[in-house]
Design goal:
The chain is α+β, with helices and mostly antiparallel strands and about 100 residues long. It folds into 2 domains: about 45 residues, no CATH class; about 45 residues. The chain is about 25% helix and about 35% strand. It is built from 3 helices and 6 strands. The mean pLDDT is about 85. Belongs to the FBPase class 2 family. One of its GO terms (biological process) is gluconeogenesis. It is an enzyme of class 3 (hydrolase). GO terms for molecular function: fructose 1,6-bisphosphate 1-phosphatase activity; metal ion binding.
Length: about 100
């Protein structure tokens, strides 16, 4: 598995304000020693098993459902992956 950083403009659109934010993010990454043009391996991104990954759907996707309005409130779905115990859970919540 690999990951690549994308800047704010790629994620949010190429507007003046977004370009300024993207430039600030690039400078911050450079100051921290992060190469924004490099593709990182999973082992480089995550060192060890003591991690927790969480993703809550806003729009529907392959991993989780998006936000749904129901008669009883708003339903969300969250994916939790635990590294230490190697668990994968889907949590359905009603707000």
């Amino acid at each position: 598995m690999q990951a690549e950083l994308i800047d704010f403009c790629q994620a949010k659109g190429d507007y003046t304000e977004n370009r300024q934010i993207a430039e600030q993010e690039r400078k911050r990454c450079k100051a921290m020693g992060v190469d924004v043009n490099r593709v990182y391996s999973l082992d480089e991104l995550v060192r060890g098993n003591d991690i927790l990954f969480s993703a809550t759907g806003v729009t529907g996707g392959e991993l989780v459902n998006g936000i749904q309005q129901t008669a009883n409130g708003v339903r969300t779905q969250t994916l939790l992956i635990g590294g230490a115990d190697q668990t994968c859970n889907i949590i359905d919540s009603l707000h």
